[in-house]
Amino acid sequence: MLTKNSSKRVIFHIDVNSAFLSWSAVKLLEEGHGDIRLVPSVVAGDPSDRRSIITAASIPAKKLGIKTAQPVTMALRTCPGLKIVRADWAWYKRCSDGFMDICRSCSPVLQKFSIDECFIDMSLYLGGKDPVAVASELKDRIHSELGFTVNVGVGSNKLLSKMASDFEKPDKIHTLWLEEVPAKMWPLAVRDLLWVGM
Question: How would DSSP label each residue in 129-155?
């Protein structure tokens, strides 16, 4: 069996934490507003339309049971004081482009998985450094330069790195090497497996 030390392949999965809400928060902070990530808040297509659907929710909102794809009317019944922010797709693209540029600067072997997540093959780009230390540098650089947090999963293939990045959020680094699979992945529910669960 390949191990962390014998395998030459190192894949990072980088995932923006609550991307649309985080990106909206960055813009609002630049405009002098408070940080919507710290209060019950959501992003929706049209805040004035109570039929609008939630596309992202803050951690405080999620703790109240508010979820993405939920109608705004339902969320307001749960939290009448909920902060609702209009989605800004042009701004989100700028944030995504900046995020991808930083990831690409670490490794040109990048696969965009969605607007807010990607895989990068770090196998030839670690420079002898520990993969977790490099992942930490990348995570901190994104936060410092762009103002939002990410999770980084580290493994020997895309499945393992993606699973690792989902273990615990936000602003975390997790590994899932082959020798860690029995302890970290086998106890999970089948629905948690990438490309299998829903």
Answer: --HHHHHHHHHHHHHHHHS--EEEEEE
**Count of alpha carbons within 13 Å of 118, Cβ hemisphere only?**
21
Residues catalogued as catalytic: 117
Closest to 19 in 3D by CA, of 45, 1, 37, 38: 37
Strand, helix or coil at 84? strand
pLDDT tens, residue by residue, 23-65: 999 999 999 999 999 999 999 977 677 678 999 999 999 999 9
d(CA 116, CA 165): 13
In one-letter notation, the amino acid at residue 110 is: L
CA distances for 198 relative to 92, 114, 179, 191, angstroms: 26, 17, 26, 6
In 46-198, at which residue ranges do the beta strands (DSSP E only) sit? 54-57, 83-86, 110-114, 117-121, 150-155, 173-176
Distance between CA atoms of residues 151 and 113, nearest Å: 14
Judge contact between 78 and 59, C-beta under 8 A: no
The whole-angstrom separation of Cα 157 and Cα 179 is: 13
| CA dist., res. 198 & res. 194, Å (int) | 9
Query: How confident is the model over 108-152, as pLDDT tens digits?
Result: 999 999 999 999 999 999 989 999 999 999 999 999 999 999 999
